[in-house]
Amino acid sequence: MANEIRGLLAQVSDRTELKAQLGAMNVVHIAEELEEMDKPEVVKVIRLLSKNKAAETFACLDSDVQQGIIEAIADSEIGSIIDELFLDDAVDFIEEMPADVVNRVLANVTRERRNLINQFLKYPEDSAGSIMTIEYVELKSEMTVASAFAQILSTGYDKETIYTCYITNAAKTLLGQVSAKDLLLSEQEKTVGEIMEQNVVFARTNDDKEELMAIFRKYGFLAIPIVDSEDHLVGIVTYDDAFTIQEEEATEDFEKMAAITPFENDYLKTGVIQLSKNRIPWLMFLMIFGTLTDQLTKLFEDSLAIMPALVAFIPMLMNTGGNAGTQSSTLIIRGMALDEIQTSDIGKVLAKELFVSLQCGIVLVIASYVCVIIFGEGFMVAVTVSLAVLATIVMSNITGTLLTFGARALKMDPAIIAAPLLTNIVDCGALVVYFVLAKAILKV
Amino acid sequence: MANEIRGLLAQVSDRTELKAQLGAMNVVHIAEELEEMDKPEVVKVIRLLSKNKAAETFACLDSDVQQGIIEAIADSEIGSIIDELFLDDAVDFIEEMPADVVNRVLANVTRERRNLINQFLKYPEDSAGSIMTIEYVELKSEMTVASAFAQILSTGYDKETIYTCYITNAAKTLLGQVSAKDLLLSEQEKTVGEIMEQNVVFARTNDDKEELMAIFRKYGFLAIPIVDSEDHLVGIVTYDDAFTIQEEEATEDFEKMAAITPFENDYLKTGVIQLSKNRIPWLMFLMIFGTLTDQLTKLFEDSLAIMPALVAFIPMLMNTGGNAGTQSSTLIIRGMALDEIQTSDIGKVLAKELFVSLQCGIVLVIASYVCVIIFGEGFMVAVTVSLAVLATIVMSNITGTLLTFGARALKMDPAIIAAPLLTNIVDCGALVVYFVLAKAILKV
User: Fold this and answer.
1) Are residues B173 and B42 in the same domain?
2) Closest CA of chain B from A152, distance in Å
3) Which of A91, A287, B353, B398 has the fewest CB within 10 Å, making it most exposed?
4) Chain A residues with CB-CB distance to B405 below 8 A
5) Domain end (from B94, B122, B150)
6) If you measure CA to CA, which chain B residue comes closest to A155?
7) Are residues B331 and B205 in the same domain?
8) In what order do the strands lie in the sheet with B223-227?
9) Are residues A320 and A432 in the same domain?
10) What CATH number does the domain containing B195 carry?
11) CB of A217 within 8 A of CB of B250?
């Protein structure tokens, strides 16, 4: 895809014309193109944009490009961009900057904004408070619909959304909410209090963002109000941020389940060193843990010496156990992430997994029996291997279930504990099951 | 949590009072409680709700509860609920119903609606057309802002969103869009054409929903217009549906990567038979595929006979290979799902994975060498095992990368191909690498 802005800079020399053309472009599109351009060009474009559009574009840029811009522009320009940002975007930006940039930025914004930013930086990571913004429309219940509109018109331009408005009393306690649609479709002389919805679903500043996401998922709201411990309205989180967070949370879970420490950036934008750092500890831990399985094999050296053919089926058994356990734990981990499965459901889930594993196991017993016979082993070996398959699947599903619920009960992340560790544990289990059966059936 | 509606039904006998109390409740909340109640109670509550609220609640219910309601109510009531549903919800509902219910429903809706439903059922599964809805606000560019509002007020109540309005010409070609915010903040006598945004980002009816999701992710729009092959506006998809789809797509990928055929319902609501059905084919396929690894072991029986201690490290090597390969493939699969990695990036990704695997491998060489020595094996075995670890990691990362890009190039789903199959392939590779090194170093 050709870079449209680079084309504009090359062809259009008239500044007013350039401004107009850039002004008609979508900010996400501008940001995307700026990320491919050189710093002087980027700064030039940012200066050609209106104050508001420059701030919106700035919010869409990667933090390294943001840092480049801040380092290249004058102090007064910093103030004008940062003051114009929505507060949540300003906080997101500041969180990614090195100390010297943060100091320079904070020195050049209004005092009020500096205080707000500092206050927001104090909310715990991943809390609703840390991701909310303060640019919401606040109405009073005694206002008429007409005066509510007058207020929206006078202040709405700088709000993150005007489509859901919040009603508070003098103490800032959240009393209700009203949609712009309801305001538009109501008679002008009605009061906001008459048409507002009083059963407002809200979150608290200290709530984890996962709880917030559960609300977005359940209700499909455009925005959710955030209140402090005294029920005072202090911010909102809008659907577009929720959309991004939902995507990030899923990506984090994919990474954790693949034994990778989650990282922020796109894969292609992340350096080789960073990618290795986020993988090595897990590979190392799992490898060392895996040598325990190796030691376990030694316990059965005598059996293997009597019947070396048994070795051949170890990888298949371990794989099947790993696959079955992963099936169980993945479904449960995902169910927990989406709030569909609670800790109290353990009985139901265990029963389900027991039945599922018996069904899967019985079908696979037949298949594995046939496989072993085809590969030329005798009847007794085939019986041993196929029974080991059944036992391994049951053991793996139950282990997958217990490990996931166990992690949750210990307030650890099931995605980290249950997924990568599971394979190792199930490997050991499969080995024990296999050799116990072999000793019993084959008398080795 | 106590069931609020059941409490209301027990305590409040006055029908008007019941209606009022139910009317004040959120439809998602009503639907949640109805799912725990008996069919006669559910039908009673549905009848107490206003036409509009009954339809909204109906849209939030699981398909088995929906079916129960339809089977219990009169033909005329069916028409009133289904006609009131947003078209996308009606189509979603019909798609889940058995043929006899579909026939009864279609016989009781207006002819216009029947035609529309039939038309929507024809869009390919997972296409933008199959998930869009037709309840959008359509304006003309010559309208003034004042007359645009008049139109929104007269038709807006039945629209899925009034916050983004679309401008078309007489031929229904999409010309632009305007937000309710821009309309509110503009002078009344301006024309819609003057204030509309002309660079509209849209999708086509036949676009895959993944492309649509990429647009939502990138721009954070409230709604995206859908046009047909002749650029005529035919529908919109709103953010709340996008939110649900994003969640479902991630869940599907989790399931595929855990070797489970994706299924629609929550885990707890899915029967044991269904859960087994969605797992058995994969377990079976992977097990049979896994016996190939077993056969491969046989090729190295001679080496194992000479040095049985080598067996002990097979599980650890296979695990490490599986873990390393899964790390690579998971990051690439997720990057592809989020449109961050394109097929053309294969060179960059391969280079990255090669360097990452060398870094990881070198660190793990040292650790595995120490492990083997600690476990009492000799220097030469330790050298063999630790070099096998390095070679296995490099081989696994490259295999994970190639398999993922290969699946994508063959238009297959990387999540299905690269994740479950990978472990088996990497197992074979690890085995070959190990014994080739053992033959070379230990002369077995």
Assistant:
1) no
2) 9
3) B398
4) none
5) B122
6) B185
7) no
8) B203-204, B223-227, B233-238
9) yes
10) 3.10.580.10
11) no
Q: Which residues pair with B173 in a beta bridge?
A: B232
- β-bridge mates for residue B237, sequence order: B224
The token pair that represents B213 in the structure block: 């999701």
DSSP B19-59: HHHHHTS-HHHHHHHHTTS-HHHHHHHHHHS-HHHHHHHHH
Please, what is the Cα angle at A51 between A63 and A266, to 5 degrees?
A: 20
Per the CB < 8 Å rule, is A283 touching B393?
yes
In a domain? residue B217: yes
- Note whether B108 and B147 are same-domain residues: no
Partners of B242 on chain A (C-beta within 8 Å) are 243
- The Cα of B49 is separated from the nearest Cα of chain A by a number of Å equal to 17
Is residue A404 assigned to a domain?
yes
Amino acid identity of residue B141, one-letter, is: S
β B137-139/B164-168 pair status: parallel
State whether the Cα torsion B353-B434-A296-B376 is positive or negative: negative
CATH number, residue A118: 1.25.60.10
Do A108 and A144 belong together in one domain? no
- Of A180, A283, A320, nearest to B360 by CB-CB distance is A283
Say how many CB pairs under 8 Å bridge A and B. 334
Q: Could you give the ipTM of this predicted complex? A: 0.86
Residue A359 lies in a domain: yes
Are residues B104 and B63 both part of a single domain?
yes
What number of other Cβ atoms are within 10 A of residue B110's Cβ?
11
pLDDT 10s digits, A135-179: 999 999 999 999 999 999 888 888 889 999 999 999 999 999 999
Residues 118-177, chain B: which have Cβ within 8 Å of A? 149, 152-153, 156-157, 162-163
| Residue A202 and residue A346 in one domain | no
B393-427 tens-digit pLDDT: 999 999 999 999 999 999 888 888 777 788 889 98
Same domain as A207, residue A305: no
Identity of the residue numbered B376? G
Number of folded domains that form chain B: 3
Determine the structural domain holding residue B336 and report its residue range: 290-442
- Residue A203 phi, psi dihedral angles, 5° rounding: -125, 165
Q: Of A200, A221, A238, which residue constitutes the final position of a domain? A: A238
Low-confidence ranges of chain A (pLDDT < 50): none
**Chain A (352-411) residues lying within 8 Å, Cβ to Cβ, of chain B:** 352, 355-356, 359-360, 363-364, 367-368, 371, 375, 389, 393
Q: What is the pLDDT along chain B (444 residues), one digit of tens a residue?
A: 568 899 998 888 888 999 999 988 999 999 999 998 999 999 999 999 998 899 999 999 999 999 999 999 998 889 889 989 999 999 999 988 999 999 999 999 999 999 999 989 999 988 999 999 999 999 999 999 999 999 998 888 888 899 999 999 999 999 999 999 999 989 999 999 999 999 899 999 999 998 999 999 999 899 999 999 999 999 999 999 999 999 999 999 999 988 898 888 888 888 899 999 999 999 898 888 888 877 787 788 778 777 877 888 888 898 899 999 999 999 999 999 998 899 999 999 999 999 999 999 999 999 999 988 988 888 999 999 999 999 999 999 999 999 999 999 998 888 887 777 888 899 899 999 999 999 999 887
In angstroms, the CA A316 to CA A375 distance is 13
Q: Do A320 and B250 touch (CB under 8 A)?
A: no
Give SS3 for A90: helix
Domain of residue A336, CATH code: 1.10.357.20
pLDDT at B1: 54
- Interchain contact, A216 vs B243, CB within 8 Å: yes
> Of A217, A240, A311, which is closest to B297 when you measure between CB atoms?
A311
CB < 8 Å from A in window 238-297 of B: 239-240, 242-244, 246-247, 250-251, 253-255, 257-260, 266-268, 272-273, 275-276, 279-280, 282-284, 286-288, 290-291, 293-295, 297
- CA diameter of chain A: 94
Question: Residue A256 domain-assigned?
Answer: no
Q: How many CB atoms lie within 10 A of CB B230?
A: 9
